[in-house]
Write a structure and sequence with these properties.
The chain is an all-beta fold. The protein folds into 2 domains: 35 residues, no CATH class; 51 residues, no CATH class. The chain has a 3-stranded antiparallel beta sheet, with no helix packed on it. A hairpin with a 5-residue loop joins strand 1 and strand 2. The chain is elongated.
């Protein structure tokens, strides 16, 4: 999927979304886009520290934000859950 935004928020803003099913243009005063999150854990050798990763690269956690390495905790976008640090 591709998303292109142009214009100025609060004035005339527009966006074009391209997906495999086709293209759609939206014109609004304001456009808010959430693109999702991806773990950025590739190549930093977490496995060497005993920290296991899930299939999509997120750090595997137990029911609390504790990793598979004793005494190591993880929160934020690289953790499987919770991804918000205020949690």
């Amino acid at each position: 999927m591709q998303f292109h935004v142009y214009g100025r928020s609060g004035e005339a803003a527009a966006g074009t979304v391209r997906m495999s099913s086709g293209e759609r243009k939206v014109e609004r005063s304001y456009i808010r886009a959430a693109t999702g999150r991806m773990a950025n854990t590739a190549g930093i050798e977490l496995e060497d520290a005993g920290i296991e990763l899930e299939a999509h690269g997120y750090i595997r956690l137990n029911g609390r934000p504790e990793t598979t390495a004793p005494g190591v905790w993880a929160i934020g976008e690289s953790a499987s859950s919770p991804q918000f640090t205020h949690v």
